[in-house]
Design brief:
With about 270 residues, the chain is an alpha+beta fold. It folds into two domains: about 1-155, 2-Layer Sandwich (Ribosomal Protein S5, domain 2), CATH 3.30.230; about 160-265, GHMP kinase, C-terminal domain (Alpha-Beta Plaits, 2-Layer Sandwich). The protein has helices at about 65-75, 95-110, 120-125, 135-140, 175-180, 190-195, 200-205, 210-215, 220-230, 255-260; strands at about 1-5, 5-20, 25-35, 40-45, 50-55, 80-85, 140-145, 150-155, 160-165, 235, 245-250, 260-265. Strands 1-4-6-5 form a four-stranded mixed beta sheet, covered by helices on one side. The protein has a four-stranded antiparallel beta sheet with strand order 2-3-7-8. A four-stranded antiparallel beta sheet has the order 10-11-9-12, covered by helices on one side. The chain is globular and about 55 Å long. The model has no long low-confidence stretch (mean pLDDT about 95).
């Protein structure tokens, strides 16, 4: 069985408060984008995990795909599988690629072995793997709160808009992203802001990580500014970085200064 785990982008990200469990309460809207990894899973006599494309750490014990398989096997006693991941979504880039891969392992095993697990159960399992993982169980636009695992679907479509996604090849660690961030409740919620016209987002829809990350990596800030100068009606960093994206009303001409950083461009899917 072959599936295509998608990346996501964040439309705004508010860091509300520091929690007692060393996590933070956040508020963000996440939407899937048509930029994917490729994952194949088939039954096998012994468990095997292989990858190609972008190199990933070789220690399989820390691989979220392997952890997802082990979680399902522990709970439902499934047989071994052969798993191959073609990695195309950059890592440490705020695009949720690893979380998406893990969630799609859960979903694919559920279908492959006819476990009949509900979305709610799969999201519960996914939350044990990572804060972003539950989002990818349904992969529809959702408001995320708590650590990012408290999800509410929202009516949002950007299918008539064009997306340009840039990645400078910088790995931004979560600890680095949180450095210098002061949690606070905003006057305008992310949900209120994202429900306004897209051409108002630049004024109201803010990613709180940008201040900290842009200070440490000014080249990322420059990419965002270049997208706005190139005609994007909204540009932002996704998640904790380092990817930045621009949303356009029409397909833009990409200047040579940005072309080397483009990892995806195309219209949003309906």
């Amino acid at each position: 069985m072959v599936v295509f785990p998608p990346a996501k982008i964040n439309l705004g990200l508010s860091i509300i408060a520091k929690r007692n469990d060393d996590y933070h309460d956040v508020e963000t809207v996440m939407i899937p984008i048509p930029f994917v990894d490729i994952l194949e899973i088939i039954p096998s006599e012994s468990f095997e995990f292989h990858s190609s494309g972008i190199a990933i750490p070789s220690d399989s014990k820390d691989n979220l795909c392997v952890k997802a398989f082990e979680l399902i096997r522990q709970k439902h006693n499934i047989p071994n599988v052969y798993m191959h991941l073609r990695k195309q979504i950059p890592m440490g880039a705020g695009l949720g690629g690893g979380s998406s891969d893990a969630a799609y392992v859960l979903k694919t095993l559920n279908e492959l072995f006819e476990l009949h697990l509900s979305f709610e159960t799969l999201e519960e399992y996914a939350a044990q793997l990572g804060s972003d993982c539950p989002f990818f169980i349904q992969t529809i636009p959702q408001l995320a709160k708590g650590r990012g695992e408290v999800l509410t679907s929202i009516p949002l479509t950007l299918h008539s808009y064009y997306l340009v996604l840039l990645n400078p090849g910088i790995h931004v660690g979560t600890k680095d992203a949180y450095a210098g961030v002061i949690p606070q409740v905003k006057e305008n919620s992310i949900l209120d802001s994202v429900q306004q016209e897209v051409n108002t987002w630049q004024e109201y829809l803010v990613n709180d990580f940008e201040k900290s990350v842009f200070f440490q990596f000014p080249e990322i800030a420059k990419l965002k500014e270049n997208l706005l100068q190139n005609g994007a009606i909204y540009a932002a960093m996704s998640g904790s970085g380092s990817s930045v994206f621009g949303i356009y009303k029409n397909k833009p001409e990409i200047p040579s200064s940005l072309s080397d950083f483009v990892v995806f461009q195309g219209f949003f899917e309906a």
